[in-house]
Amino acid sequence: MAKTNALVAAEYERATTTTKKVYYFKDEEYKIDQISKEVYLNEDTEIHYPTPFRGDDKYKTIKKFVFKGFKKKLPTGVYKVSTFGYGFTKPLSPVVAYLHANHDFTEVVIDADGNDQMDVKGKRLFISGASLQKLYATFSAINGKHKEEKERAAVQELNQLFPTVVPAPVKRYVAGTLSEWGSSIAEFNDADKNAIKDLFDKLTLLPNFFSETNLIKTKEIIDNKFIQSALVGFDALLKATSDTPTLEKKFQTFLKENSWIFSTLFAQPVILHQDEAYVGGKNYKNKNGKYSDFLIKNGLSDNVSFVEIKTHLTELVDKKPYRGDDVFALSKELMGCISQVLNQRDHFQKEFYAHAYKTKDVETFNSKALIIIGRLSVLSDKQLHAFEMFRNNCKDVEIITFDELYRKIESLLKIMTGKV
């Protein structure tokens, strides 16, 4: 029998310029010969163009993947050879399915030290290297669990068909599932919560499980887990380099989900009374209402405090001196934030009795105003001196920076773990 030449499907170098190498993917069977990769020579950038499989485009809308800052070693979670079509690997297929169903991104930019952003208008998805690794780890773990669950289901079905040959499955719980729990109770559905309650009820029957020592230790572990999770989440937000309204909203969401942090900022026991609380100020046209990012209430006296949140990137002090080389003015953003929170407090106090008649659950006794804004670590010594002089002479508004807040949480964890 005569030999036949196998049809070629492979990548080849098409051209080299002073700035980059250009590669093409050729599939003779489906008559495809298209660009597949560009490797830049003078910058740490590599671009992949997903290659077709059996003549069909790999993605509905995504046309290219841009990699920045990986020093020629691409991250886990993406294919590195054209024969697999480039793009996301199989564990991330749920991410691809979501993007296909909800967006029409044409470009994915994966930057080792970048930010996460969905540029819907520009049809570009930005993912940091750390976020890609987190996504890959999460979905790889899910795939592993699904595999174990499928294998168990197969054994169960075969056991029913062949009970004398196939033993019944022993385990129902997938080991390690509970240990991967994050910090939010919302991750559990009602069935999970009932199962945990049932498990706890059974564990309490064990000897010494309900002892004081065990309970204290369990509480310490839980408390430490909450604080550690908060620090990880806070640290991720502090790595952002673009000051946007979205970033401010992320900080607000973080503090809402970890409202216990407010207790570290006040000298009295406090609780989060309401986020984005209306504090008055509407005119006769029902416009210009005032809203505070957070309304904090004293747990004993019901006295409220007003909290405004900016971001760690908000400037505290002007970059150029106001006079000489050591007199600096406070930034426009900080002064505006102070005026904003004082205005909110003023409107609330003026309209308090109207609010009290309706709610009867808050009081206002010269209510405190707090601003979380900026970072001390970016200030020069002279800027820091100017800021501290102003802050320590600011009577009605307390100002705390994001790096100070991070240090407070970190110190609390050290106290909890005995590592002070």
- What is the percent of helical residues? 25-40%
Give the N-terminus to C-terminus distance in angstroms. 81 Å
Structural class: alpha/beta
Number of helices, counting only DSSP H or I runs of 4 residues or more = 9
**Main sheet makeup:** 8 strands, mixed
Kindly report the average pLDDT value.
Answer: 80
Q: Per DSSP, what share of the residues sits in E-state strands of 2 or more residues? A: 15-25%
Uncertain runs with pLDDT below 50, 5 residues or more?
276-291
Overall body shape:
flat
What is the H/E order?
EEEEEHEEEHHHHEEEHHEHEH
Radius of gyration: 29 Å
Kindly state the number of beta strands: 13
What topology, given as strand order, has the largest sheet?
1-2-3-4-5-6-8-7
Structure description:
This protein is an alpha/beta fold and 420 residues long. 36% of the residues lie in helices and 21% in strands. It has nine helices and 13 strands. A hairpin with a 3-residue loop joins β1 and β2. The longest helix has 33 residues, at 129-161. The protein is flat, with a radius of gyration of 29 Å. It starts with 8 loop residues before the first strand and ends with a helix.
Blueprint (SSEs and pairs):
Layout: E1 9-16, E2 20-27, E3 32-40, E4 45-48, E5 64-68, H1 93-102, E6 107-111, E7 117-119, E8 124-128, H2 129-161, H3 190-203, H4 212-238, H5 245-257, E9 270-280, E10 290-298, E11 303-309, H6 332-350, H7 352-359, E12 363-372, H8 381-391, E13 397-400, H9 402-417
Parallel strand pairs: 5-6, 6-8, 11-12, 12-13
Antiparallel strand pairs: 1-2, 2-3, 3-4, 4-5, 7-8, 9-10, 10-11
Helix pairs in contact: 4-5, 4-9
